[in-house]
Every structure is written in C-alpha cells, then in structure tokens.
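Re: weekly structure request thread

Next one in the queue (306 aa):
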Amino acid sequence: MSIKTSLLASVCAVALVSAIGASPVAGQAKPARPAAAPPDLTGLWDGAPGGNTRDLAKYMKSQGLTIPFTPSGAERYKNVDMAKNPNAYCLPPGPSRALTGPSPFMIVQHKDVVSFNFENHGVYRIIYLDGRGHPADIADYLQFMGHSTGKWEGDTLVVDTVGINDRTWLDSYGLEHSDKLHLTERFEMINDDNIRYTVTYDDPVFFTKPFSIVRIFKRGVHALRIGLNIVVAHWNLGVKPQDVAFLVFAPQGVSRHHGCSSMMRELDEGRPRAGSSSDEIDEHALCRSSVLIDQNSNRVARRQRP
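Done, posted below.
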C-alpha cells in the first residue's frame, strides 16, 4: 500500500469515526436537559438551506429593505474591486461571512466557551461565556474573526463581537466594513434541529444606522459531517485537494467548497463536482469572475461585481 493510499485510508477512518461519534443527526431524540440549563448547540450545522444571505444587498431587497449606506460606504460598495475578494487569497472569512455563506460549520459548546469550527478555510472562532469583557486595547490588535463574548438569555445565545479586521467582507459580493464594525448575534434554538440566527451590523463609517438579517441553520446529516471532517483532515494533514476531491464532494452532493483557489483549479482541469448545488455553482461563478489571473504579467486584474 502506498503512503498516499495509507494516508487517505486514515483520513476516511477518522472521518467515519467522527461521524459515528459526533452529535445527533436531524430527528434523533436527545436526553431532556435540566430546566435551568441552556440548550446545547453542539453539533454540525448546515449554512446552505437557511436563506440567500451570501449577497446581503439582495437579501435586504427581498425583504423590501435596503442597506443604509453612508455616502462613503455607498461609494465603496459601488466601486468594490472583486479581484480583492479575501476568499480568493485564502484569508479568514470573518465572523459574518463565515455564517452568511453556504458552508457547514461545527459548534462545540462548553460551560464557559463556545467554539465555532468552519469548513470555510478551516478556521475557528471562540466565544467566551465566562463574564469577561473585550480587551481594552482590542483596536490595536484587530483579528480576522474579531473578539467575541456571549451570554445566555433564556434559550438564546447573545454574542457581542468587536475588533474585526477590516480586510474581511460581510458577504460574498463585496460588502466591506471598517474596523469600527460591531456585531450583535442571536442564536435561538427553535428545536433540536433548527437555530434561528439574527445578526445586527453596526458600523458608523459604512452605515447610517444598524441593520439586521435573519436566517435558519439546520442540523447537518451524517454525509455532511463526513464531508466536513475530511475537509478538516485535508487542511490539517496537508493532503492535496485532488487526492481527496472524490471523498469531499461525493457524499450526496452536500459538502461545500474549501477555497476559491482549489475551485478554480478543479474547473480548469475539467473536473466538475458531483452533485453540485445551485449555491455551489453560484460560488464557482463568483470565484471565476472575482479573480482573473493574467499569466503573462502574473498580476490580478480588477473585476467588477457580477
């Protein structure tokens, strides 16, 4: 057995064991929790079915609303350079885009901390529940995923996030923000298989007033969990994307992308993904239109929003 084959077999084994031992799947009963205890958000959640929030301007329009841009914010949005899409450079997506996009994510909940582990670029996010505040000097040490603290209000986890690096986008279509961005998020456990997610954006540089969006996260199924685990193993173990593509994207077509660079390479090599969803096809188109490599000059050409 070759080293490559052995490594892939190990990845599959880890994925299958994780799938079997992970959180409940949709519809599976869980033990009743004590009356005073908060709900347990632990598990794999699918970001795809809950609403078209990858384009926040389009989402707001569907609600009969518009994003309340400041003049400078509107100008930035109008003239955004899609060739500078942070995802195309494998930069962390930021706390907003990681949840408004279609990629699945894993929540691991403990008494004093909640961890979000994202398929999107294999990044994570920590929310502190131990009563601490934000660091006094957070503005001097901005983070791609920001600094998050949280508290429980009944069955709803309320999260406050500041200190977000302004190199991230709020969605996949070039909605930028400043380092003054303040997010307030509410994760409300509707039932065992659904979370109502509400996020409020407050940025006085880009927006004249705060505005909010709402979407639903659905608990992931086993096939999705396997896809996520293999993606995580792919990032951590350094397995080449082409070596695990048939594993990552084959299960029921429910696994999502793992970066624009690998997407574009797979498209260039003529290897369409099995069971691609409309969201994934749109993401392919976005990657293709966002980053245009000029091979002769080795530069990235400026692209407008599709």
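The CA atoms of residues 116 and 125 lie 5 Å apart. The domain at 43-219 is CATH 2.40.128.20 (Lipocalin).
Next request, please.
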